[in-house]
Amino acid sequence: MILAGLMLSALLTLGCNDKQPVATTADAGTPQASAQPAFQSATEGVTPKPVPSDALHVDGNRTFQYNKEVVAFGSRPVSSEGHAKLENYLKAKLKKDDLEIDEFPIDSPAGNFTGRNYIAKFPGKKDGLIVIAGHYDTVYSLPKAFVGANDGGSSTALPLQIADVLRGKPNNGYSVWIVWTDAEEAFKTWTATDSLYGTRHLAAKWKQDDTAAKIKAFILVDMIGDADLDIDEDANSTPWLRKVVYQAASDLGYQSHFFVHPNAIEDDHLPFARIGVPVVDIIDLDYGYNNVFHHSVEDTLDKESPKSLQIVGDTVLETIRLLNQQ
To answer: How many helices (H) and strands (E) in the chain?
Structure first.
């Protein structure tokens, strides 16, 4: 698979219908699709710097407990019983926060449904906002035995723990909005119109009401619980923001888990990239040998690690700290 003249690892050429690696960023329809410069890794020229002693951190074990609680609802595709239970769980966990429930219609190949994005808002003193997002649905077309521990579970759990960390603390930086996105998964086959329903809706809404113009960074987390954590360097992410994420990971001593493999991924960040929002996708799309656990009933809790959730969570929080310094 060729990306800006660079041969991507053969193990990332997948036969699944979700979060697809694509041949070039032009295929993904991103703003940089035409005449883009050659891919340059964010790892170049980064020197680790000290992290303040009062920097915020997540609790990996607590995050994994949330992951377990989410998985206990079983399969969680849109309109399912498990999905409804998870929605009630999110509302209960976020009941003390400034929570917006963003409801939208879904016209899919499998029928018409109602989707809901959950948005918890934590105010800051600087003008602008940082968005942290992760999807909470699982694949509609897979059997009920598919519980999506990593794909859907980890991306629900980590934002909940980040909300815990931010809750009640003074914030002199940008406001932080945490979004649990719905209907990321395709209902039948991953296409431009059968995928990313929640973020396509939200990007259009925020562009119309000018919220998008206030977003300094859109940070997506997806499939970040893998015990063998290896975060891809996504070429569809904004280069300078990739650099900040890698700086944060390096400052924390986690650089060996980040950006070894370049890729170009279709995921919930793309609708925002297309309207000019700086985006980064923090994703490990190498889940088991040749990604064998992805969209498989083998996507279970035993494949995950609290340490991986901690690494990604701490990196996200350090990324926010660095962005607030800009």
So the answer is: 8, 10
